[in-house]
Amino acid sequence: MKLHIALVAVVAVLLSPARALACSCISEVPLCQSFWQADAVFAGEVVAFEKIDPKQFFSRRVARVRVERVWRGEVEGVVDVSTGAGGGDCGYSFRRGQQYLIYAHNGPQGKLSTNICTPTKLLSKASADLEYFKGLDAPSSGARVYGTARFETKGADLVAAKGAAIVLEGQTRSWNALTDDKGAFEFTDVPVGDYTIAMEGAPLTPWKVEVRDVRACAVVHLWAPRPPKSP
Q: Is there a domain that residue 93 lies in?
């Protein structure tokens, strides 16, 4: 089981072989969200890392990984994990002989892939991840959906939406909450399912939130034009 939300990494488009835009990722995604978004989470040693098409300068690359331990998904033995060329397409640069903790997603034909917008990292730097994994078997009454709500001002600055009504709506029921002085809100004990979340009265399409495990969380940062002042 996993959690997906419509907040995904924004991958820049390669305009030409000579020019690429910088990669941009959604920041501050907690482990309780990243873990359940991934189709596979495992540790292993990279035994090979090379271009898929050596003739292409901006070719995607593939890491061949000897799996050593698995926390999520069904992977074993030696698996291939594809990634981008690097730079504008957010490709992850593995190094042969190094051990990594890999957060991978299923691509076409079920092939695994990853990028720098996932928490993939050297295993030696994964102490926080490994500590989180220790609590995976702890019981949970439901997922947590939380975040902030902000208003856009004339100068394009975002200010906290204090006391804004936030609605989390599912197929069978809905939840309501008011933001605090910092624009923060939180819903707890959310069952598995598909939801939308929005500021009440905001003229924008609601965000989609997909909860696929009661141990997961989802962070949503909402914004809307500042409503006109009452006369």
A: yes
Q: How many CB atoms lie within 10 A of CB 74?
A: 8
pLDDT: is 135 or 231 the higher one? 135
Instruction: Output the CA angle 190-194-200, nearest 5 degrees.
Output: 80
The Cα–Cα gap between 223 and 227 comes to 12
Pairing of strands 143-152, 217-225: parallel
Could you tell me how many residues make up the chain? 231
Dig out the tokens for 179 from the structure.
Answer: 């933001």
How far apart (Å, rounded) are the C-alpha atoms in residues 37 and 2?
5
Mean pLDDT across the stretch 59-63?
Answer: 91
- Mean pLDDT check: name the lowest of 14-23, 56-65, 130-139: 14-23
What is the per-residue DSSP string for 1-12? ---EES---BPP
Model's pTM, two decimal places? 0.82
Tell me the one-letter amino acid at 146.
Y
Q: What is the CATH number of the domain that holds 99?
A: 2.40.50.120
Q: How far is CA 7 from the centre of its chain?
A: 7
Q: Could you tell me if residue 104 is inside a domain? A: yes
Element (H, E) at 40: strand 40-51
